Amino acid sequence: ARRLPEPLLHERVDGEWSFVETLRHLVFATDGWLFRMLQGEPRPYHPWGLAGSFLTDPASIGIEPDAHPSPDEVLAVRRERMDAVRETIEGLTPEELERVCQPPDAEGHPAEAQSVLGCLHVILDEEWEHGRYANRDLAILESRVEETKQAED
C-alpha cells in the first residue's frame, strides 16, 4: 500500500470498499466483537469505524461514515486494535473459550450472544477475508499505476 500514491488508497475498485475503507471496517469489526462482546463495553466504537450496510444509522452509535482519515491515521488505530486482539488471545484459557458473552444492553452490533471462541472466529474471519480483498484491490491499483507509467514512456 505504501508504494501507491495516497489518493489511490481512498479509491474504490469495482464498487468495493477502498483500502482505507476496508481498514476502517476492520476497526469496526474489532470494536464490536472484541470490545463490545468480549469486554462488555456498551459504546466501544471508534468514530472512524465503518459498518456494513446492515447498520442503518451508524451515527447513533458514534460512527462517522463520512470521515476521511488518512491511511496512517487508520493504520495507527488498526495497530491498537490488533494489539488488543493479540493480548486477549494470549490471556485466554481453554475453559474461557466456551464462555458465552452477552452483548451490553445498548444499541450496537453484534446484538446476539456468542461464545468467546465464536467472537474470535468472527474477528479472525473478518481479518482474513478483508485482507484478501484489500490485497486483490491493491494489486489492481498497482497494475493501473504501472500501465500509466508505461503509457507515459
What does this structure look like?
By secondary structure, this protein is an all-alpha fold. It has a single domain, classed as Up-down Bundle (Four Helix Bundle (Hemerythrin (Met), subunit A)), CATH 1.20.120. It has five helices and two strands; from the N terminus they run ααααββα. A two-stranded antiparallel ribbon has the order 1-2. α2 (19-38) packs parallel to α3 (71-90) and α2 (19-38) packs antiparallel against α5. It is elongated, with a radius of gyration of 17 Å.
What attributes characterize this protein structure?
single chain, 153 residues, mainly alpha, Four Helix Bundle (Hemerythrin (Met), subunit A), 5 helices, 2 strands, 3% strand, elongated
Class of secondary structure makeup: mainly alpha
Q: What is the number of independent domains?
A: 1
Question: Uncertain segments of ≥5 residues (pLDDT<50)?
Answer: none
Number of helices: 5
> What fold name stands as the CATH topology?
Four Helix Bundle (Hemerythrin (Met), subunit A)
Cα(first) to Cα(last) distance is 24 Å
Strand order of the largest sheet: 1-2
Helix content: 55-70%
* CATH architecture assignment: Up-down Bundle
SSE string: HHHHEEH
